[in-house]
Amino acid sequence: MSVVAPRPPRRLLAVPLAVFALAAACAAAMVWTLERQDRAQLRAQVADIAGDHANALQRAIGLALSANNALMALVREGQGTVTQFEEIGTQMLPFYPGIAAMGLSPGGVVRQVVPRQGNADTIGFDQLNDPRQGAESERARESGQLTLAGPMELVQGGLGVVGRQPVYLEDDLGQRSFWGFTYVTIRLSEVLAAARLPQLIERGCRYRLWRIRPDTGHEQTIAASTPAASADAVSRVLTLPNGQWTLSLIPAAGWGAPGVLALRCAVGLLFALLMAYLAHLLVALKAHERGLAHQVAQRTAEIQATQQQLRAIIDAVPDPLFEIDLDGRCCSVHSQRAELLVAPADALVGRNVTQVLPALAAQSVLEVLHEAQSRGWSTGRQIMLDLPRLGSTWFELSAARKPDGADARPRLILLARDITQQREAQERVQHLAHFDPLTDLPNRTLLAERARRHIADAQARGEQLATLFLDLDHFKNVNDSLGHRVGDILLVAVARRLESLLRPQDTLSRLGGDEFLLLLPSTHAAHAGEVATRILSAMAQPFQVEPYELSTTASVGIALYPADGDSFDTLCQRADAAMYQAKRGGRNRHGFFTADLQARSVRTLQIENALRRALERGQLELHYQPQVSLATRQIVGAEALLRWRHPELGQVSPAEFIPVAENSGMILAIGEWVLRTAVHDAKRWLDMHLPLPAISVNLSAVQCRHPQLPEMVARCLRQAGLPARRLELELTESAAIDDPAAALAMMEQLHGRGVRLSMDDFGTGYSSLSALKRFQIHKLKIDQSFVRDLDADANDRAIVSAIIRMAQALGMQTTAEGVETEGQLEFLREQGCDAGQGYLFGRPLPADAFEAYLRTHRDNQATAEHVGS
């Protein structure tokens, strides 16, 4: 319960008011004195600055003007004639920076000047009779003294000043007569640059350089800042020949500092109020001793509350807090968690960090303390301690210098912050950089590091090393049918099963997707084959993945060091090639890299590299093979066939380079070129009225999967101006059935744009009839493998007949490929096949030859019609 002191009598209020008035008057006097001192000091500083720059300017002008003395000596020495003036003046110019030109004016008319370049127009200039400079020149002649005229617009152009020295010569009788002037022209910009006037703005001053014009008596500004110095400026006078220049400076913020004045007034007011308050306290102290005692007690309680609050704040800090001197001696310890200390707190006080910490950690602590002492703070250093209850624990140290105490011995506050989780997170990031996040197997980066080390060891010891490239067979079916989550679980199970087959020195890595790579050091070919066999056997055992029992097989390719390669990348590439050979051989098997595979890989690489430049080098061309109606033998279309003739490789088969183009992604650019070229050729022949109703272009599976295919087709047709109905795109069964939904969407877009579609090589794939009936297919092309043996093979005849009947039932046309004999033609015509394509009707021809073929066919048709009529 607080005690309220009685109010002092009204008459006692006069004492605080008197004290306030006196203190306010003293404060005002002090503020006024300080303001005057500050203003005087500032004016002195500005005056010094003005003096520095004025002296520099005067020295620069004086140095330039002093050249007149040398010129005058030359004139007098030659009695008015200076024969080598240009050579002498040119040598003098470098010694007088700031001079734009110097010259001789006998009788006041400029006759000689250097440098001549840029000043030739001043030759003949009459200085005494010039309207602008005549008065200044006359004043120089009359005074007989060096005069400085300007600033003025120079004849040479620009603003400058001219220093003229009148020269008088004595004749043999000692009579003095006016000879003329020596003069120097000084560009004002160069003189002002020497005086460093722009630096005045950087030094916080506004300036104005001015003079009193001798002809008008008015002030003339020579140079000034923006804004210029005002009237209340500090000035320094430059004494120059025939006049004076004045440099005036004023601080950019003005002479006064309103903020400082306001602060001083506020401090003075606060001082007056404080003195009045102290007087009031003294009066209250005299009148209310008991009330004062209560106030002291209340203040003590407040201090204690503040200390308790500070203590509570310190207690809220979860990390250990130490007070340590510069020698590393612990003065006090605070920690809410005893398990974070290397020893009990009372055992640490008074001991040096070198006594309680490992040497490396103690050294780090001392370095942090010394850094904090010199800089005021230190942070970021990390140490690791083996704590009795927590084990290995990481701390981040932060230290700050503590204000010196009464004994003047510096101390520092050290905070040790529980970053173990942060370090563990960093280690997890490092782990993710080297391990596959799904299977926790080494990734390709870590595998490459180990491979280089093992290869170096194998080379030193003369041993072999095996790399096994493993790919799961038909893994895509698991993802497509059961989802990627089940697929991921299966991959983890595969990884664990493979790990169980390896030695401690072996490395299993997941490269991505369903591809794994095994690195087997100190392994020869026979052992590598045994490992591959064990892997295939292990993969053949079912995997229990949630409710599903999944069976999978694998294909394994093996490459050996040093026989198959001497680097990790080479071994990996060749093991990959061997794996693909195993897949082509039927899957669920392993195979070794062989010389034949190497030759095939080299050939494939050669084809790929050459194909990348084939398009831009014009090595690709289109041949066209006619498609003929079996009923009328008239041309109903032509198929565009891609051909590649390389200058070194010769004629490369499409069966060889098309798969390379598809695997490398080049098929998209090549396919667009084929389509663009074919529709342009078709449009040209259409304009020539040649008998070609439609042109057919093959699409690869890669093109069919590209989402921009319909737009690309429409763009090519639009650029060529060919109607969409005259274009037929051929796609294979595999391209259609790999992703029926996407294929159907693509076909609907193309069909909607008016493009006709046909299915090429029909009968060689595994088309779903339910999907086929939904496709926007205009025509089925019967594969030539069924047409080739129609004359002798009853099965081929039955298959071809069934395809034709099915197409007719679905409203589709049919075209037979590879028609070469009249017997084949007759059978196909009897079965109702609409068109044929093959050597019987014509071989594939280049564009110009095919154009001639079309022209001949048109002429023959016209002749037949004429005969018939």
What does this structure look like?
This protein is an alpha+beta fold and 869 residues long. Mean pLDDT is 83; it is low at 1-6. It has 5 domains: 14-43 and 256-283, no CATH class; 66-194, Beta-Lactamase (2-Layer Sandwich); 320-425, PAS domain (Beta-Lactamase); 435-593, 2-Layer Sandwich (Alpha-Beta Plaits); 612-864, Alpha-Beta Barrel (TIM Barrel). The chain contains 29 helices and 31 strands. The strands form 6 sheets. The protein has an 8-stranded mixed barrel with strand order 22-23-25-26-27-28-29-30, surrounded by 4 helices.
What's a concise summary of this model?
The protein is an alpha+beta fold and 869 residues long. The protein folds into 5 domains: 14-43 and 256-283, no CATH class; 66-194, CHASE domain (Beta-Lactamase, 2-Layer Sandwich); 320-425, Beta-Lactamase (2-Layer Sandwich); 435-593, Alpha-Beta Plaits (2-Layer Sandwich), CATH 3.30.70.270; 612-864, EAL domain (TIM Barrel). The protein has 29 helices and 31 strands.
- The order of strands across the largest sheet is 22-23-25-26-27-28-29-30
CATH structural class of the largest domain: Alpha Beta
Average pLDDT level: 83
Q: What is the H level of CATH, i.e. the homologous superfamily of the largest domain?
A: EAL domain
Rg computed from alpha carbons, rounded to a whole number of angstroms: 51 Å
Just name the CATH architecture of the largest domain.
Answer: Alpha-Beta Barrel
Query: Quick one: how many beta strands?
Result: 31
- Beta-strand share of residues: 15-25%
How far the N terminus sits from the C terminus, by CA atoms, comes to: 135 Å
Q: Specify the helix fraction band.
A: 40-55%
**Spans where pLDDT lies below 50 across 5 or more residues:** 1-6
Sum up the overall morphology in one term. Answer: flat
Q: Summarize the main sheet.
A: 8 strands, mixed, barrel
Number of helices: 29
Pairing-aware structural class of the strands and helices?
A: alpha+beta
CATH topology name of the largest domain: TIM Barrel
As for the number of domains, it is: 5
Keywords: Membrane, Transmembrane, Transmembrane helix
Protein name: EAL domain-containing protein
Subcellular location: Membrane
Pfam families: CHASE, EAL, GGDEF, PAS_4
